[in-house]
Amino acid sequence: MKRLVAGIMTATLVAMTGAALAAPPADTLAEVKKKGVLVAGVKDSLPPFGYIDEKSRQIVGYDIDFVNAIARKLGVKVELKPVTSASRMPQLQEGNIDLIAATMTKNPERAKQIDFSHTYFFTGQKFITRKGSVKSLKDLEGKKIGTAKGSTSEQNAKKALPSSTVLSFDDYPQAFLALQQGKVAAVTTDEAILAGILAKAPNKERFEIPNVQISDEPYGIGMRKGDKAFVDFVNKTILEMEKSGEAKKIFDKWFGPHTQFHLKRNFKITADK
């Protein structure tokens, strides 16, 4: 019996020690500088924010360029970890990544759980539909709408279209495949993401993004709650990027008139109130 109790106590102590080792750092800024690597949670199938380049086989995109700029400022290397809309916050809170740069909308519910940087991208939630099928929101009432699990798009669609059925997929490309197959009447998320999906579609002439918007979507870089030194550093960095013109340069690289994702830059990075 004593041997059994001792064994249980030892196992418990090992488990507690392992848990302590796995705990996220209290000061991410100091820890990242110490280890020399910034681990970022990013999308890997969502052009032009984060996707695998066919030639280099590396993850590239708008979000990745911001991560690289932050890492350069820190003087560290970058490790990119693919995340989904549903997995990104748990990955951050468990300490598996240092920050989230993955098309993440800032909202009060999320802000209770993690901290956000100033807005570094601004867009609005719209729909991809079959060409000519939707002129107003009313045309989508009672229909099946596709989106991604764990996204704000999921919640916004349910609020805007209470009579519709919102079907949630692992990612937006899967939702778009459902639209192509006629399983949903529309795919909804932020316009910038929809533009990326549509640009890559082989049969894009059959689809469109109607001028039907249901929300504003400000993107922030996500960091652990209360990690003030790191949040301050990231905010200072992206404000400097705006001032120097680097932020606009990154936008033009991915969304400028010469790109297939052409959007107008209707925002500047400023200190959030």
From TrEMBL:
Q: What is this protein called?
A: Amino acid ABC transporter substrate-binding protein
GO biological process annotation, one example? amino acid transport
User: Member of which family?
Assistant: Belongs to the bacterial solute-binding protein 3 family.
Write down the superkingdom of origin: Bacteria
Solute-binding protein family 3/N-terminal domain span: 37-258
Kindly state which keywords UniProt assigns to this record, in alphabetical order.
Answer: Signal, Transport
- SMART domains, alphabetically? PBPb, PBPe
Entry-linked Pfam families: SBP_bac_3 (PF00497)
Q: Where is the Ionotropic glutamate receptor C-terminal domain?
A: 37-257
Q: Where is the signal peptide?
A: 1-22
UniProt keyword Cytoplasm present: no
One GO cellular component term of this record is: membrane
Citing just one GO molecular function, the answer is:
ligand-gated monoatomic ion channel activity
Record flagged with keyword Ribosomal protein: no
Q: Read off the InterPro entries from this record.
A: Bact_solute-bind_prot3, Iontro_rcpt_C, Solute-binding_3/MltF_N
